[in-house]
Design a protein that fits this description.
The protein is an alpha+beta fold. It folds into four domains: 15-77, Immunoglobulin-like, CATH 2.60.40; 86-207 and 400-526, Rossmann fold (3-Layer(aba) Sandwich), CATH 3.40.50.1110; 237-386, Jelly Rolls (Sandwich); 538-641, Immunoglobulin-like. The chain contains ten helices and 38 strands. Strands 1, 3, 4, 6, 7, 8, 9, 10, 26, 27 and 28 form an eleven-stranded mixed beta sheet that branches. It has a six-stranded antiparallel beta sheet with strand order 11-25-13-19-16-17. β26, α8 and β27 (457-460) form a beta-alpha-beta unit. α3 (156-169) crosses α10 (512-526) and α8 runs parallel beside α9 (475-488). The longest helix has 25 residues, at 210-234. The chain is globular, with a radius of gyration of 28 Å. 42% of the residues are buried.
Length: 642
């Protein structure tokens, strides 16, 4: 018995795509008569010589919950309960799509408390690889509701998209989360989609060899461990327990934190550094539990309060947010000690390094509901050991071409979906010249595999971000523009503006709620027929008038809502300063901007040549206020030809 089987995606709690033929498939013995019953319809088929069967349900309006029953003529039956019919979206990309609700809990604590919604479902596919051929079904995953037991694991971007789309339309929303931090676009493409990219296909073939791949993974494990072991063996601080509460730090050097180590007397060190901060705890806080926030630290840390270990983080990106147990803080003088390992020089230009840091602009504090102690300012430090080489440069096997597609995306092609949300591009900044072609191939390929020529793709533009970017490089800015133009130049695609949703000092900005809302507005309008504003202002027509040596440029706008306005963003000033024009000679001049209800007036003095381009916020971040419509949606950064 138990010959009748359905794939993981066809399981209790699933969401079937509304108003399309939903696909039901599975396995049984060859030649079996299969009956599929859903709502008021019954479908009949017979398994083929390989035991496979397939039926397509009639399109249904949204609703539920329902029960789907699959049975055969031997008496076996599979019942799939709690089935909804609604919108189903693939949410894919790299770390900012993968980023879980756990990471944004402090910005949106109410979301974790009030998350139970039976009309939202997630199917999370864990990281998996296959460089040889597409898998027939995902190796992991099950449909889950966003209740308190699971909400912390949900993709924040995807969850807020689903929540807002459901709120706007009343339609149930399910999403498949197939994402992985650091992944490039070629990771999510098939052999056919990469045809002609011989270097990428050769790389995939290389990692398809089981022996080679196992060796690479083993090398990662051993190389990383050996580097840390060698550093730890030299670390005087470990031998002498500099983390201890009674450590004498009177002869340690001082440094002001937060800061890049390169900007202090510490310099571009590779190795292990101990940082200590003494602070005074008031009686009202003594003995009580508290939180310790240390921004972000490059690269890894182990942290102690009064000599007691309170937490560690193995790499640079996660925020350092540690719990201090009840009874550990005492009235009067206390200490926090942070053992930091700076593992890499990130060299962009001669003499320009990223290297170790306590990230500027972040919060460094100990606090509870009633008290807060600022930890920024003067710290003591002492070098435990210097490393002879950089930290081990890992071979990120999962970032090679085709692997994630075969194991995580391709197994979903049989499952009918309504669209794709795509948040990726950070890892392709240095190869942006080929990105548009790769994106077009991916969109075409996904539409072919899902047999849906109009499958919508919504692309998230890169947000503002500066701290790890070479200030003289346009790579990040250029990639944002590539994402915008690639999406807008492809039928059925669009992009979401995030120039105001990033954090200049963090690759993983927290405000995924507004990002999800903007994605949902697109889907609600374009796929669900809601009569709502879904875009920020768009330049509709450009008119230039020369006045002697100056030029006045009028930008007539669409998607202006009830009128346009300026708003400060990212802690920048209240005036629009990010509008430039480029003339025929290549000169780039700053333009004064007057924002009117339905148009923008640009004034450029001392311009004797014709205008070629208008550039708005074509930079890693904005320097002044941004332009919005009345619905709070911003004008997109970009280069606009005249």
């Amino acid at each position: 018995m138990d010959n009748l089987k359905l794939p993981r995606l066809l399981s209790s709690g699933m969401v079937l795509q509304r108003d399309k033929k939903a696909h039901i498939w599975g396995q049984d013995k060859p030649g079996r008569n299969i009956t599929v019953a859903f709502m008021d319809d019954v479908y009949k088929t017979v398994t083929d010589g390989n035991g496979c069967f397939s039926v397509w349900l009639n399109p249904q309006p949204y609703g539920g919950p329902y029960t789907l029953t699959v049975s055969d003529d031997s008496g076996e039956s599979v019942e799939v309960t709690d089935v909804l019919v609604g919108e189903v979206w693939l949410c894919s990309g790299q770390s900012n799509m993968e980023l879980p609700m756990e990471r944004v809990k402090d910005m949106f604590p109410e979301e974790l408390e009030n998350c139970d919604n039976p009309n939202i479902r997630e199917f999370k596919i864990a990281e998996a690889l296959d460089f040889t051929a597409p898998l027939s079904e995902p190796a992991t995953g099950k449909w889950r509701r966003p209740d308190r037991a699971y909400i912390r694991e949900f993709s924040a971007t995807a969850y807020f998209f689903a929540k807002e789309l459901n709120a706007l339309t009343g339609i149930p929303v399910g999403f498949i989360d197939a994402s992985l931090g650091g992944s490039k676009i070629h990771c999510w493409m098939s052999r056919e989609m990469l045809k002609g990219y011989d270097d990428k296909l050769a790389l995939a073939e290389k990692y398809a060899d089981d022996t080679f791949r196992a060796s690479a993974l083993k090398g990662n494990e051993n190389g990383l461990a050996k580097w840390h072991e060698a550093l730890d063996e030299k670390d005087t601080g470990l031998d002498e327990h500099w983390e201890a509460d009674d450590t004498d730090d009177s002869k340690w050097n001082t440094v002001k934190l937060p800061a890049f180590f390169r900007d202090t007397e510490i310099g571009n060190i590779l190795g292990c550094i101990y940082f200590r901060k003494s602070f005074t705890v008031p009686a009202s806080m003594a003995g009580k539990s508290a939180k310790l926030w240390l921004g972000t630290i490059v690269d890894s840390d182990k942290t102690y309060v009064n000599g007691e270990f309170v937490g560690q983080t193995e790499y640079q990106y996660p925020p350092r947010k540690y719990d201090i147990r009840e009874g550990l803080l005492r009235e009067g003088l206390n200490t926090v000690t942070v053992r930091v390992k700076a593992e890499y020089y990130l060299e962009f230009l001669p003499g320009y390094f990223s290297g170790g840091r306590f990230t500027p602009g972040k919060e460094y504090k100990i606090f509870n509901d009633t008290d807060s102690i600022d930890l920024s300012g003067e710290w003591k430090y002492r070098i435990g050991a210097e490393a002879e080489t950089e930290g081990y440069r890992q071979d990120f096997v999962s970032w090679k071409p085709m692997g994630l597609y075969n194991a995580m995306t391709a197994p979903c092609h049989k499952f009918t979906i309504g669209g794709v949300n795509w948040y990726q591009g950070e890892s392709d900044c240095e190869e942006s010249d080929e990105y548009t072609d790769l994106f077009n191939r991916m969109v075409e390929g996904y539409r072919r595999e899902w047999n849906d020529k109009e499958l919508p793709f919504y692309v998230v533009q890169l947000p503002n971000f500066t701290i790890d970017n070479n200030p003289e490089s346009e790579a990040w800015t250029r990639m944002r523009e590539v994402l915008r133009t690639a999406a807008e130049g492809t039928y059925g695609c669009d992009s979401v503006v995030t120039i105001d949703l990033g954090e200049d000092n963090d690759l993983h900005p927290q405000n995924k709620k507004e990002l999800g809302r903007r994605l949902a507005l697109l889907a609600a309008h374009n796929q669900c027929g809601k009569d709502i504003e879904y875009s920020g202002p768009v330049i509709e027509k450009i008119a230039c008038v020369k006045n002697g040596e100056s030029v006045d440029i009028t930008l007539n706008m669409s998607h202006k809502g009830d009128g346009m306005e300026t708003r400060p963003a990212n802690g920048k000033g209240g005036e629009v300063t990010d509008m430039y024009i480029k003339d025929e000679d290549g000169n780039i001049l700053n333009a004064a901007v007057t924002v009117m209800k339905d148009k923008l007036i640009l004034s450029v003095p001392k311009l004797s040549r014709s205008v070629k381009e208008i550039r708005y916020c074509y930079a890693q971040t904005n320097s002044g206020a941004l332009i919005y419509n009345s619905e709070g949606l911003p004008l997109s950064p970009g280069i606009y030809e005249v």
